[in-house]
Design goal:
The chain has 607 residues and is of the alpha/beta class. It has 18 helices and 27 strands. It has three domains: 3-237, Glutamine Phosphoribosylpyrophosphate, subunit 1, domain 1 (4-Layer Sandwich), CATH 3.60.20.10; 244-445, Rossmann fold (3-Layer(aba) Sandwich); 449-595, Glucose-6-phosphate isomerase like protein, domain 1 (Rossmann fold, 3-Layer(aba) Sandwich). The strands form five sheets. It has an eight-stranded antiparallel β-sheet, with helices on one face. It has a seven-stranded antiparallel β-sheet with strand order 5-6-7-8-12-13-14, covered by helices on one side. Strands 19-18-20-21-22 form a five-stranded parallel β-sheet, with helices on both faces. Helix 4 (124-135) packs across helix 5 (140-148) and helix 9 (301-317) packs parallel to helix 13 (402-419).
Length: 607
């Protein structure tokens, strides 16, 4: 949520800032603004709406300058107005600030420190700007450190002061910040995407760190003003990877990326001859792995549904009791974990606030914690004792697609890695890996049906309710399909295990309430067929995902999308794709903003 961009160097910074904001649009926002030090004063422009609205407002203005900050806001405190948009200024306009996060004690700070200050917005962020101004005595970094000592909450912030014209101070607590290192210049961003066109050399701030940035140097400190030495890291992604590459939307591109991104996730992580997986980031010896008696998977949204699919693999292959928790609820129920519990936090961004908080709680209680994330250098990656990058590449559409399938694949590999120490033979492991290596090719055959799925979506675009059904490992697929539909089309949708239909939800069915059912040929095929026939008997329209060659399903369905056969544990890797394409084509047909659906953000860094 929200996005920060900053630049310190010798170039004109306005184009850098605006282009950087465009790279951060996927995070979700409702207003945007820039502040540039120009001719001895801050030139600050803000606008409600898309970045194009800000760009239109800037036309004709002279905003020359080589130091500046910019921001996209997702409203938390105060409505969507220009006055509430960032960057904010303090009383005398000598200080400007942009901020991601929430200052929980902003009311107390106003009452204690800021009597007599004039406020022009409803935001907690403006309080922070005034608080730093109140502590300023000629050293901006010290003022930031002293002000933040009184702050409770989360923040990623960048601040400039007119008296220190070639300097930006950045600080982080719970909301990510990255500094890109150039030649006599530095870039600041909420993530690496704004700077990939300029540099791949980056430094990630950790919680409680402050960066003092000028064109000549970067200095790092703790909030207690102790010097910090940080390593420069190299980012693998390039700017071209983050573009649409000819697709009309990022989401469609990312759906079509899945065969390649899955290959990237698997590469080098298995031994086909021995039927083994080896994910080195686990950082555990075989003996330590044998000591694990329970697995807990923590995640939110799409990552949670990937975890539900992973539960089947861990219990079936590794013989390990596995619990999947919604991360936002985990730490509020006094969870029972110990040093024989292995806890995985699953998050595309690696910055999901609820998942990070849940992992910290598990760690406090003595569990072993690991991360499964997409973003290199993210907080979850750094704060856990190891884990795995899913290597999905940049995912810029808010609704996740390729990250989901890569998460499922990594969980399958982990389950196999544990399973080979216990009950899984080399021959069984090899069969699983052989089938897994066939998945990218089978994904391509499903993607070739995109136009066929588009016609089905357009047929049902008038529906205002949907129900998704699945059984066994396809129940999490149904949940994910339902989420995708409601995320990007705003159509009401629910998902249930097929066996639950007759325990209440069947009362909703009618010719105007279509069913989207997963009925591939596995051990629950006959059960699922009965559930579909129950729906059919209530005159509900039925769309089926079925196994190629199963022509009998046409008798009980209005529309069928066929997918190639595979092993049951691998079905989510295939069966999810038709649901992603259906949601995408439905959203396009309805004229929705596919990549940036309303009210949503890619990286949810507040609780």
């Amino acid at each position: 949520m929200c996005g920060i961009v900053g630049y310190v160097g010798k170039k004109q910074c306005l184009p850098i800032l605006i282009n950087g904001l465009r790279r951060l649009e996927y995070r979700g926002y409702d207003s945007a603004g820039v502040a540039i030090l120009s001719d001895g004063k801050f030139n600050r422009t803000r606008a409600v709406g898309k970045i194009d609205c800000l760009a239109d407002k800037l036309k004709g203005q002279t905003m020359s300058g080589t130091v500046g900050i910019a921001h996209t806001r997702w409203a938390t405190h105060g409505g969507v107005t220009e006055a509430n948009a960032h960057p904010h200024a303090a009383c005398d306009d000598n200080l400007v600030l942009a901020h991601n996060g929430i200052i929980e004690n902003y009311r107390e700070l106003k009452e204690k420190f800021l009597q007599g200050h004039e406020f022009k917005s409803e935001t907690d962020t403006e309080v922070l700007a005034h608080l730093i101004e109140a502590h300023y005595k000629g050293d901006l970094r010290l003022a930031v450190e002293q002000a933040l000592a009184h702050v409770h909450g989360t923040y990623g912030l960048v601040v400039m002061h007119m008296n220190e014209p070639e300097k930006i101070v950045a600080a982080r607590m719970g909301s990510p910040l990255v500094v890109g290192v150039g030649d006599g210049e530095y870039y600041i961003g909420s993530d690496t995407s704004p700077m990939l066109a300029h540099t791949k050399q980056v430094i990630f701030l950790d919680d409680g760190e402050v960066a003092e940035i000028t064109p000549d140097q970067l200095k790092m400190f703790t909030l207690q003003d102790e010097k910090v030495t940080k390593c420069v890291e190299n980012i693998e992604w390039d700017d071209e990877q983050a573009q649409k590459q000819g697709f009309p939307h990022f989401m469609l591109k990312e759906i079509f990326d899945q065969p390649r991104s899955l290959e990237d996730a698997l590469r080098g992580r298995y031994d086909l001859a021995e039927g083994e997986a080896h994910l080195g980031g686990l950082n555990m010896t075989p003996e330590q792995m044998r000591q694990v008696k329970r697995v807990v998977l923590l995640a939110c949204g799409t990552a949670y549904y990937a975890g539900l699919a992973g539960k089947y693999a861990f219990e079936r292959l590794a013989d390990l009791p596995t619990e999947v928790d919604v991360a936002s609820e985990f730490r509020y129920r006094d969870p029972i974990v110990d040093d024989r519990t292995l806890v995985f936090g699953i998050s595309q961004s690696g910055e999901t606030a609820d998942t990070l908080a849940a992992l910290r709680e598990a760690k406090r209680k003595g569990a072993q914690v690991r991360g499964i994330v997409n973003v290199i250098g993210s907080t979850i990656a750094r704060e856990t004792g190891g884990g795995t990058y899913i290597h999905a590449g940049p995912e810029l559409a808010v609704a996740s697609s390729k990250a989901y399938t890569n998460m499922v694949a990594i969980l399958l590999l982990y389950a196999l890695q544990f399973g080979r120490l216990k009950r899984v033979s080399a021959a069984t492991g090899k069969r699983l890996l052989d089938a897994l290596l066939e998945i990218p090719g089978k994904m391509k055959s499903i993607l070739e049906k995109s136009d066929e799925i588009k016609k089905i979506a357009e047929k049902y675009q008038g529906a205002r309710d949907f129900m998704f059904l699945g059984r066994g490992i396809n129940y999490p697929v149904a949940l994910e399909g339902s989420l995708k539909l409601k995320e990007i089309t705003y159509i009401h949708s629910e998902a249930y295990p097929g066996g639950e239909l007759k325990h209440g939800p069947i009362s909703m069915l009618s010719p105007e309430f279509p069913i989207f059912a997963l009925m591939t040929q596995n051990q629950l095929y006959d059960k699922m067929r009965s559930n579909v026939q129950e729906a059919r008997a209530r005159q509900a329209k039925v769309i089926l995902v079925a196994t190629e060659g199963d022509e009998s399903v046409k008798e009980i369905a209005d529309d069928v999308i066929f997918v190639p056969p595979t092993m049951e544990l691998l079905e989510p890797l295939l069966n999810t794709l038709p649901l992603q394409l259906f949601a995408y084509h439905m959203a396009v047909a309805l004229g929705c903003d596919v990549d940036r659906p309303r009210n949503l953000a890619k990286s949810v860094t507040v609780e």
